[in-house]
Amino acid sequence: MRETELGAFLRAHREAVSPAAVGLPNGNRRRTPGLRRAELATLAGVSVDYLTRLEQGRDRSPSTQVLAALAETLGLTRDERIHLYRLVKTAATGGATCDGAATTPTVRPTVQALLNGLEPAPALVVDRPGDLLAWTAGFAHLASPVGLLEADPPNLVRYAFTDPRAHDAHPDWDAIAGERTAALRTAAALGDPHAALLAQELMITAGAPFRDRFEGSAALPTRTGVERWAHPQVGELRLAYESLELPDPEELRLVVYLAADETTATSLERLTTQHPTPSTAPPTKTTASNTTSPPARPA
Predict the structure, then answer these.
(1) Which of 51, 98, 136, 205 lies 20 to 30 A from 28 at CA?
(2) DSSP string covering 106-143
(3) Could you give the angle at which helices 78-93 and 5-16 cross, rounded to 10 degrees?
(4) Residues near 76 by beta carbon (within 8 Å), at least 6 away in sequence
(5) What is the C-alpha separation between 25 and 44, in angstroms, rounded?
(6) What 8-state DSSP symbol labels residue 222?
(7) Residue pLDDT, tens place only, 103-115
C-alpha cells in the first residue's frame, strides 16, 4: 500500500480538478472525472509517460521542479504540498516496516503538566494512529458517558467505525468519520506501521463504510473546526477544536476543545460541577518514574 500512495495522491487530485478550472473545455466524451493524464502532463510541462510512471508507482523520485509544477497545476493547498513532499520522501526511502516489537509513545511530564493546566477544558494527547495517550478530567466528563474511553487504549478511529454509540455521540457522524479516516490515511501513507495495521484491521471489521472513505479520497485532516457532540447528560454540545503538533519525533498532537457558544459553555460548566473528578483516569505513560504505563500495542 505504501509504494503507491504517491501515485494515488496525484491521481485523486488530478481527478478532482475540473477542466474548466484550468481553462480547458469540459467536453461530452470524458470517461473519467477531472483532468485526463495527458492534460495534466501538458499543463505541468512533463511527459505523459513520466506522469504515468509516477501514478503507477514505477518512479518514486520526481525532481523538485516536477513536484512544484504538479502542485501548482493541481492547485494544492499549503498542507497538501507539504504532504506531497513527505510522500515523496517516504516513497524514496521505502517507508517504515511493521517488523519488530511495537511500543507505546510516551507523554513527556511537561506535556502532562500542560494538560493539567488546561483543566477543566476537554483536551487530549493523541498519536498518529488515533490512540489516546492522555487526557484531562474535562475530556473524561465529555467522552466517558459515550463509551469512547472504554477501550485499552482508546482509539478515535476504531471508536468511530466499530462502536454503535459513535453514531449517537456524533450527530455529524459522516463528517467525523471522514476526519478520522483522513488522519489515519495520512499517517499510513507516511509510513507509520501501526496506522497501516489499524487500517488493515478496519478494512475487515468496519467494512465498506471505512474502506470507501479510506480508498476514495486524498483529503488531509483539518486541524481546526467545530464538532457537534450529543452528550447523554447535558444534550448537544458545539465544540470548537484546535489540534497542535507537539515537538516530538512521534508526531503526537495536543487537541483542545472549547465551547463554541454560550449554551455549550454552560453545559460544560455543569459537567465540571457535577463531576469534580474524572470518571476514567487517563492511562498516561510518561518518562517520570512514578507514573503508570498503558500496555504496549501488539506487534
Answers:
(1) 51
(2) PPPHHHHHHHHHHTTS-EEEE-TT-BEEEE-HHHHHHH
(3) 150
(4) 13, 84
(5) 17
(6) P
(7) 678 899 999 999 9
What gap in Å lies between CA 97 and CA 60, rounded to an integer? 18
Taking residue 78's Cβ as centre, other Cβ atoms within 10 Å add up to 8
Asked if 105 and 133 touch (Cβ cutoff 8 Å), the reply is: yes
277, 137 contact by CB (below 8 A): yes
| Sheet with strand 123-126: strands edge to edge | 132-135, 123-126, 253-259, 235-245, 224-231
In the block, cell 510541462 appears at 45
Q: Determine if the pTM surpasses 0.90.
A: no
As a whole number of angstroms, the distance between CA 167 and CA 298 comes to 28
* Long-range contacts (CB closer than 8 Å, 24 or more residues apart) made by 118-125: 118/256, 120/268, 120/272, 121/256, 121/257, 121/258, 122/239, 122/256, 122/257, 122/268, 123/254, 123/255, 123/256, 123/257, 124/254, 124/255, 125/246, 125/252, 125/253, 125/254, 125/255
